Amino acid sequence: MKKYLVISFLFAYPAVNAQQVEQTIKKGNDLYRQQQYEPAAAAYDEALAKDPANKTAMFNRASTVYRLSKYSEAIKSFDDLAAKSTETGEKAKSYYNKGAILSHQKRLEESIEAYKNALRQDPNDKEARENLQKALLELKKKTPLPKKESEQKKQQQNKKQQQQPKMNPKEAEQKLKLLQQKEKELQQKMQKEKSKNGGSSAKDW
Is pTM beyond 0.85 here? Predict the structure, then answer.
């Protein structure tokens, strides 16, 4: 079973400012693996001070910021990376991580769009596809419930309105009394006619 939220991480090191930047990023990665996120972020900041355009340091710092529960900052960082990156792999991972953070925050519609962007860059990303499907299912579960509840309430109100005049006992009694009176009057008329006609009555064939 794969976890719902899996933050991608980059371990490739660029050749710019090779030794110093590479060592600083490696230090940050080691700290990240040890779940020492504050010093890891500081290490990536140090690497970016030496090489501000270093995508690996930017990406890994964004992942670390997420681990520090700085979600809005992490989302902004991945947005910037997706806009600046020219490689489809980096773009895909940036969008994926953005989607994972948004899913964690239950911002399902935004996360769905992020996963779709990740799949546009890398259609073979199984984790992005699985997380997209999960987010879509969660959204479907959430949205139809209030509609059903409102429909049920309307139906109940309509039933009450329809039932009220039919179930009114006073009106029912009055109607029954009127019918009984009419029947009595008819019977009396029939008896009078019979007595006048000598007890015989014509039949309708």
Answer: no
Q: How many CA atoms lie within 13 A of 149 on its CB side?
A: 5
Q: What is the mean pLDDT of residues 99-122?
A: 94
- Among 74, 71, 60, smallest CA distance to 29 is for 60
The domain spanning residue 94 has which CATH number? 1.25.40.10
Q: Is 3 inside any structural domain?
A: no
Token couple for 28: 């940050």
Helix locations, 68-107, DSSP H: 71-84, 88-104
The Cα-based distances of 101 to 1, 10, 85, 116, 139 in angstroms read: 19, 17, 19, 14, 16
Containing domain of residue 50, as a range? Answer: 18-144
pLDDT at 81 over 80: yes
